[in-house]
Amino acid sequence: MEFQKVDGRKARGEKKRRAIVEATLRVIERDGVTGVTHRSVAREAGVPTTAPTYYYATLDDLLIATLLWSAEELCDEMLHVVATGSAREIAQCLAQAVDEHRGRTLAEYELYLLAGRRPELKPAARRWLDLAVELARPADPTGFRAFLAAIDGLLIQGLIADVAPNEAELEPIVSFLIRGRDELTAAPREE
Amino acid sequence: MEFQKVDGRKARGEKKRRAIVEATLRVIERDGVTGVTHRSVAREAGVPTTAPTYYYATLDDLLIATLLWSAEELCDEMLHVVATGSAREIAQCLAQAVDEHRGRTLAEYELYLLAGRRPELKPAARRWLDLAVELARPADPTGFRAFLAAIDGLLIQGLIADVAPNEAELEPIVSFLIRGRDELTAAPREE
DNA sequence: AAACTTATGGAACACTTGTTCAGGTAGTTG
DNA sequence: CAACTACCTGAACAAGTGTTCCATAAGTTT
Fold first, then answer.
1. Positions on chain D within 7 A of a protein C-beta
2. Quick one: A80 and A148 in the same domain?
3. How far lies A26's CA from each of A42, A94, A108, A123, A128, in Å?
4. More confident residue, B32 or B9
5. Residue of A nearest to B28 (CA)
6. Would residue B76 count as lying in a domain?
7. Where is the HTH tetR-type domain (chains A, B) (predicted)?
8. Which residue in chain B is spatially nearest to A36 when comparing CA positions?
């Protein structure tokens, strides 16, 4: 009756919803978007076969929810480093993304491609780009866009290299690019 | 009997093989790798349901063959422009890739991601990068790698933009990047 | 504690999938 | 023209898919 009191049933439901989304992300990391089925997700999450269907009307909804959530998470992690970190920090971040977090990075780029075919995903896929621009407020937008594009390219090319590039290899390239971010950004920002 | 005479049956088979691969690429362009099934490919190619299975033992083999072939084709088209073209030419090429050839570009990046999970596809996915380096022979490899990375990034980001970027938007960015290719490449090459 | 609402899950259905296989067909050879 | 061989295919199957449906369990309210 208190206005704060939420229905315990709904609370439990929310928890399960989240567990399902997390399980879906694990499946994508392991097997790609192709590997996502109601059943594979249910197995991974340890819930009944019909639970994913119950919480997400269609398989598409589940995928979309998962990738939106994933994109948001990744944004928080990477954004600050990319927008304000040193070349060394950025290189380290990239090296991790294509090595330890390889599965996660692959999943992230599957979102990109999916967004290419599903307009409703575009904002989520583009979110880190928009936020990066907002955060860095570069005085030279052209150079900054080149920098951001190169980050995507380095990651994706890192994923198909025979051996993932390490921090030492990436740093000079990042340094070269970072000019587009810093050259003029260093000027005092007034807002 | 002449040593040139090939079995007419085999010749016909080769033609069908190619038709199947081309149909597969069309399916990928339209529906993505997910949409590729023996049956969808057969429908698209106008061949019997079992033909794809006959020519390619497994669905994976079919996908691999298609993507190898596609990568090779794209290489021939884009490579020269990217390695030696002017900023304007490159920008025009990119603008086309994310607009008229959008489906094809999407398909190409699905190859990238697939290669991330199937090591045997890596060489094919990486081919244009290797060839570009060989063709441009940049004196500044770092800048050139940054340039190549940015091309991938611009394409992929172009695919998820609300409206595909046009030549005019892309040209300044390419100009900014192309320094890494031309700055020192212009020096006389001796070999 | 009875009435009510909401979340949940097992069984089932219609459908599509990859793949197999025995027979037929077309091209080649003697 | 007959024998041969390699290529090809339609029907069929087992397995897995997304989704529906209703009985039940769990929680809330009166």
1. 6-12, 16-21, 26-30
2. yes
3. 12, 21, 12, 23, 21
4. B32
5. A117
6. yes
7. 14-74
8. B34
